Amino acid sequence: MYLWVKAFHIIFVVAWMAGMLIYPRYKLHQLASxxxxxxxxxxxEAAERLRRIILTPAMLAVWVLGLVLVxxxxxxxxxxxxxxxxxxxxxxxGMHGFFISLGRKIDNGDAAVPAxxxxxxxxxxxxxxxxxxxxxxxxxx
Length: 141
Ligand code: HEM
Prior knowledge:
Distance between the termini: 26 Å
Bound molecules: protoporphyrin IX containing FE
């Protein structure tokens, strides 16, 4: 049972991370075009489908399955790595919300952020994912 939960936890982590890397890319294409243009509309719809079908459901599944793992293995609560991991995942969840709110502004034609800044922000979830994975696998403390 525990290993099945952990397996699906990791499966949804992969889906969430994939969504966090793709969603800003769609928004960058929108920033490179104008509302009403075919590229803008195609990218807006693709981003909305990604958000609704993959990005948000995967984030929720990662949290629920992660907390179920803790509930099934409460001894982990005394591990420093888990608390640092949860703080970093809160950061990742905050970035999720930020990307979605930014995406809505861009959909309304409000170039809320310069494209070069969004390109830089787009890399941050990947950096966080690397640190989180090292924490949970290597458990340095
Ligand atoms: C708040 C959300 C999360 C919680 C509460 C949580 C909690 C946990 C727990 C308790 C385990 C099992 C540890 C074990 O028994 O070996 C686990 C495994 C794992 N988690 Fe999470 N996790 C969360 C989010 C994430 C995220 C966002 C990532 C990656 C970006 C991630 C990556 C992993 C990996 C790779 C494993 C497997 C580690 C192993 O088998 O050695 N988790 N998680």
